[in-house]
Amino acid sequence: MELSHYLGVFGGVSLVGISLTAAIFKKIVSHKNTDQRSAYIAKLIREGAMTFLKKEYSVLSVFIALVFAILSFVFTLASGLSFVCGALSSMLAGYIGMKAATRANEVTVIEAKDRGERAAFLTALLGGSVMGFTVATIGLLGLGLIFFLFVENNNYNFLNILVSFGLGASSIALFARVGGGIFTKAADVGADLVGKVEMGIPEDDPRNPAVIADNVGDCVGDTAGMGADIYESYVGSVIGSITLALYFYAGKLEYLSLPIMLCAIGLIASVIGLFSIFLFRTQLSKMLHYGTYVAIACFLAGSYAYLSCMNIDMALFGAITLGALSGVIIGLVTDHYTSGSPIHKLAETSKSGAGTNLIYGLSIGFESVVLPVCAIAIIVFITNQYCGSLFGVSLAAVSMLATVGITMSVDAYGPIADNAGGISEMSGFGPEVRKITDKLDALGNMTAALGKGFAIGSAVFASLALFSAFCLEAKIPALNLLDPVVITGLFIGGTMPFLLSALTMRSVGRAAWKMVIEVRRQFKEIAGLMEGKAEADYARCIEISTDAALWEMLLPGVLTILAPIAIKFGFGAQGNLALGGFLAGATLTGVVLALTMANAGGAWDNAKKYIEAGNFGGKGSDAHKAAVIGDTLGDPFKDTSGPSLNILIKLMSILSLLLATI
Amino acid sequence: MELSHYLGVFGGVSLVGISLTAAIFKKIVSHKNTDQRSAYIAKLIREGAMTFLKKEYSVLSVFIALVFAILSFVFTLASGLSFVCGALSSMLAGYIGMKAATRANEVTVIEAKDRGERAAFLTALLGGSVMGFTVATIGLLGLGLIFFLFVENNNYNFLNILVSFGLGASSIALFARVGGGIFTKAADVGADLVGKVEMGIPEDDPRNPAVIADNVGDCVGDTAGMGADIYESYVGSVIGSITLALYFYAGKLEYLSLPIMLCAIGLIASVIGLFSIFLFRTQLSKMLHYGTYVAIACFLAGSYAYLSCMNIDMALFGAITLGALSGVIIGLVTDHYTSGSPIHKLAETSKSGAGTNLIYGLSIGFESVVLPVCAIAIIVFITNQYCGSLFGVSLAAVSMLATVGITMSVDAYGPIADNAGGISEMSGFGPEVRKITDKLDALGNMTAALGKGFAIGSAVFASLALFSAFCLEAKIPALNLLDPVVITGLFIGGTMPFLLSALTMRSVGRAAWKMVIEVRRQFKEIAGLMEGKAEADYARCIEISTDAALWEMLLPGVLTILAPIAIKFGFGAQGNLALGGFLAGATLTGVVLALTMANAGGAWDNAKKYIEAGNFGGKGSDAHKAAVIGDTLGDPFKDTSGPSLNILIKLMSILSLLLATI
Predict the structure, then answer these.
(1) Taking CB atoms and an 8 Å limit, are B354 and A354 in contact across chains?
(2) Could you report the per-residue pLDDT of A491-511, keeping only the tens digit for each?
(3) pLDDT at B198 (0 to 100)
(4) Is the predicted pLDDT of residue A450 greater than 80, yes or no?
(5) Model confidence at B390, in pLDDT bands (50, 70, 90)?
(6) Contact, B238 vs B143, CB < 8 A?
(7) What is the DSSP letter of A480?
């Protein structure tokens, strides 16, 4: 097949992606909301989220300009420009996705009021799908354009430009995840501690000054942060895979372009999966699962046909299959630990106090590490045995992420449903509507847990692909654990996730503390607030979260970027060996810590909700109080520190790969 | 130097160790206590501890017999016998140390009453030194005898017998640590939850039915458990080092015997350090530090002289120095995080509730990982650069542990002082005596934190030595991280510490729950208990802790032993490669998790004590309640799950080394 044929396929699929996303976006945005109160609330949330994004992006533009200058100086202008494109593409995806999500939330409530559960559910899903397909389409477009423009140039420039693009996406992801995570948890913890615990008013009560900030937080943390995270995995795995293909299949365009083509197949499969959901008429949770399974099945069928047609080694299809399935496996394990029998036991241990709830909850987190990590390890092993090279492992990573259109749509559905619940409560829509949004929200909690598992799994696979690419590019023949330089790197790298977690946990603590002070002040100083006669100063709370997030994201971000550079140059001639060990250590402790945090956090959250549903004494009982304490620790676990680790390991890997090209 | 000369030195030093230990033991045990009440309380504690040890040892005898049969069948009868000797030596050390500690506690109270602070302090220290010097002497004797008996035989048999001895010591250590850890925390948490929180009676109140079990727990967890742990590190590092010497310096007796001779020098240096404490007249805490520094200085001087005399490569002296210093560095970092400014901030965060206390406490634990692990990594790097082989790294491990006599004495001082406080309270000795024992106890908390840091550091060094020995013995030329088999092993190994922690945390939760039920029952059913007119059924509480500990230690123990065997044989021809990766992964995540747990636990404990001392509202304030919740999570962290990880990584390493000799 000629290059032009590939370009044709790539261009066609990209067009499908663009037009579909634009159509859905228009459908969501053009919806009219005639209810004044809900339109007003939604506007507050939307403006808060967009203001945060704009402020964040203006801080980041300084960073981008700085790195652009460095890269242009050290490498080439093309490399610097590619970095800017990578960064801008991530920001653009976040912007479009957020714009849609912060409109879809109000449309969902209106649909719930006017047309019932199914319509509301589909609206929220469509709203999420804008983020899903924006990520998939922009990623495919960006990577594909660079690939087809530069692949026939000399290898060095090509790889360098490609990796710079990835670095751009990665660094934006880090700031988006850390900043978004701090924003959302400062608002959430602050709103709960004063509102729920001290003043005794319910969740999403409009009298709570931090309530809008809390809803904004769901958008900037769970939508924009998660989007940037998954976008980075998507881009990183493709780059890692292409780098490996350059070594193992130099000059063979059908192999070099395979990662890009798999993404194209995955995009089409995701479109089919999304529309298949509209055809199912069963429980909502099953509809989401089925849609994902349809997409994976179409992707596998499409890949099989493509590999056969192109005469590509069919052993690679084994790797593709395992990669696609591994996402499902990790999802099922996460589902068990965060909604199965462990949750009922955890809720029961809350009866004897916060101490036993904490001990048991953390033990669930620890245990939940074992199966997913062993599954990943075994998939790596089998893939390699079967394909005979690390290229297979990297293809598994690409394959896991190829159907990102549908997985990210399901993911982004969650915060929209959550927001819809908040808007309905604050607009006083009554129990009928609230019942629907509660149901949609509960479903969103499930998809959020699954999404986190998927994000961690994909981060590990992407990091492994980038790590292998780094070793090849750095011309390291072997990374021998018997070499003390490698051991030294391994141990130092192993501490990085703990350092980052310490910093981000503390940031949340500090920011939440400021929020508590402000909310207490408003309740005290604004006359009539508690009686519902005066309006709270929502904007001030949003400002506190925004400022805290922007300030507190800087140190973790800068440390993550400087650490690999310090290792590389600190160890002189042995820099690459030390850096290799460093990456392996950080990836290992990063994934186990991230899984512990995500699942312990999810377990505490759901145990609390299980008690609130009326079990073991229900709301206000001693068991509930104990469960709330567990949840407070779980909040930064699952929404700030845990997710930041995904980015940590990917960003350090891609940066190392770039350093190796020096 | 002839073999007989070495034997002479070894025999002489061993004799010094035996006679000194026997003399101190006799001095402690022969002390008469004429106060009936305190003698009675002390007898209850002593009998409880000894009953636990006897039951534990009878369960373990079945295990020992089983492994003896397997080893004799797979290897030789000598190997099986050596395993039994290793196991019995650890049990003997535990027995003697406990016997002394459970007499020294009451003698310390009497000395505090009759002769004041200094006399009581020195008594507690002497009591602890029985454990310290028993560990050092028995270790030296056992390893030395095997070394000198078999070193001139063929290498294979020699190494196999030596490693079997280590495996014996290791497996006993695992059960002692896990069992002791569960015993002590079940009693502690149970006593606190009902006694302090529900009934509002103070710590160590004789009306609390679990109070004796709590004091017994200090002995079996902190004395016997810690002793077995350090004994294992001591034995493991020497075995690892001798194995490496066999490769790098085959046939050179002065190098082969160097680890043993360093232990002999360290034993003499520890004796000098111990007695130097009697000469200092300053703050008690400084006396303990100075004693340790004197011992280290004497050890370094002695080693320097020895290496010069024997014409041994002086580069190795650099490794010895770094090893000895690394213990001090880890101790200082631990001290900062568990008693410095972080504690005051942690206590302050308790003001806004348990949530912020938990978030901040855990962030201290995470941060405390960074410096010690990086220090270890850099010491490994420098040692290797300087000595040119991994033998240097293993010597650093031996050197860190050579002065075990003094470090373990200081360690074992803690629980004796703690017990003394309990006995004084229960015997109604009044505020004067209590003030002294409180001061000794506070000092014990500091030494306990340092001891935990030392135990973790020594475990890492011992594991690294054993790991290198394993790779050499398994004839692995390189353990390449680019090989997917190694990566698979690395990831699976990395989950082991999380699995073990999940199991042990849950065991503590279950056992504490049983204790809570029993203590509540006694308060309800025993008439006059709360008024102090009837005596509680202490024995029943001890029985609950004992049974729980013995049952719950089995699963973690068996899993730890089976895992490396499963990896080795599950991966067939690639078994050793996978096992190498597995060990590296387990060691890395084990050390970071152990440090997090030890230091977060210590921080929560000390923040609670800081508030109890009258800060931020003092006892009974909201800040205090929040701090108690943090401490409840910290209890199993620092005394059960964290310490168990030290054993996990050492036991799996030594077992792998044995598997490699097949």
Answers:
(1) yes
(2) 999 999 999 999 999 999 899
(3) 80
(4) no
(5) confident
(6) yes
(7) B
Sign of CA dihedral A167, A173, A176, A178: negative
Q: Which residues of B42-63 are buried (b: 16+ CB within 10 A; e: fewer)?
A: bebbbebbbebbebbbeebeeb
Helices marked H in B75-154 — which ranges? Answer: 77-114, 117-150
Identity of the amino acid at A55:
K
Q: Do A588 and B592 touch (CB under 8 A)?
A: no
The pLDDT assigned to B502 comes to: 97
Closest approach of B588 to chain A, Cα-based (Å): 7
Q: CA nearest B118: which of B267, B284, B252, B244?
A: B284
pLDDT at A156 over 80: no
Question: Which run of H or E residues covers position B27?
Answer: helix B3-29
Would you place residue A662 in the very low, low, confident or very high pLDDT band (cuts 50, 70, 90)? confident
Least Cα separation, residue B97 to chain A (angstroms): 31
Q: How far apart are CA B301 and CA B306, in angstroms?
A: 9
Cβ pair A370:B499 closer than 8 A: yes
Residue of B nearest to A386 (CA): B484
- Complex ipTM, two decimals? 0.94
Q: How far is it, in rounded angstroms, from Cα A456 to Cα A454?
A: 5
**What whole-number percentage of chain A has pLDDT above 90?**
74
Report, as an integer, the average pLDDT of A578-591.
97
From the list A279, A58, A41, A49, the residue with the least C-alpha distance to A180 is A49
| Nearest-CA distance A364 → chain B (Å) | 7
What does the pLDDT average to over B191-201?
83
Q: Write out chain B residues lying below 8 Å of A584, CB-based.
A: 481, 487, 490
Q: Are A501 and A593 in contact (CB under 8 A)?
A: yes
- Chain-chain contact of A369 with B488 (C-beta, under 8 angstroms): no
**Who contacts B199 (Cβ-Cβ below 8 Å, separation ≥6)?**
B208, B523, B530
Look at residue B154 and tell me whether its pLDDT is greater than 70: no
Q: What Å distances lie between residue B534 and B332, B426, B530, B537, B563, CA to CA?
A: 47, 14, 8, 10, 50
pLDDT band at residue B203, thresholds of 50, 70 and 90?
A: confident
| B589 touches B497 (CB < 8 A) | yes
Best of A337, A345, A357, A369 to mutate (most B CBs within 10 Å, chain B): A369
Q: Which residues in B lie closer than 8 A to residue A366 (C-beta atoms)?
A: 498-499, 501-502, 505
Q: Which residues of A touch B498 (CB under 8 A)?
A: 366-367, 369-370, 592, 596
Tell me what pLDDT residue B424 has: 93
- A·B CB contacts under 8 A: 240
> CA-CA distance, A22 to A3, in Å (whole number)?
28
Nearest chain B CA: its distance from A355 CA (Å): 5
The number of beta carbons lying within 10 Å of the beta carbon of residue A378 is 15
Q: Using only the alpha carbons of chain A, give its radius of gyration.
A: 24
Q: Left (φ > 0), alpha (ψ -120 to 50) or beta: where does A475 sit?
A: left
- Hey, what are A100's tokens? 């849609």
Q: For residue A401, give Cα distances in angstroms to A263, A265, A461, B617.
A: 8, 11, 10, 53
Which one-letter DSSP state was computed for residue B31? -
pLDDT of residue B477: 84
pLDDT above 70 as % of chain A: 99
Which chain A residues contact residue B492 at CB under 8 A? 373-374, 377
Rounded distance between C-alpha atoms, residue A650 and residue A657, angstroms: 11
Most A CBs within 10 Å: which of B345, B389, B498, as the mutation test of the A interface?
Answer: B498
Tens digits of per-residue pLDDT, B391-435?
998 999 999 999 999 999 999 999 999 999 999 989 988 889 999
CA-angle at B606, arms to B603 and B608, nearest 5°: 110
- The answer to whether B363 contacts A502, with C-beta atoms less than 8 Å apart, is yes
- Are the C-beta atoms of B303 and B317 separated by less than 8 Å? yes
Residue A480 bridge partners (DSSP) = B480
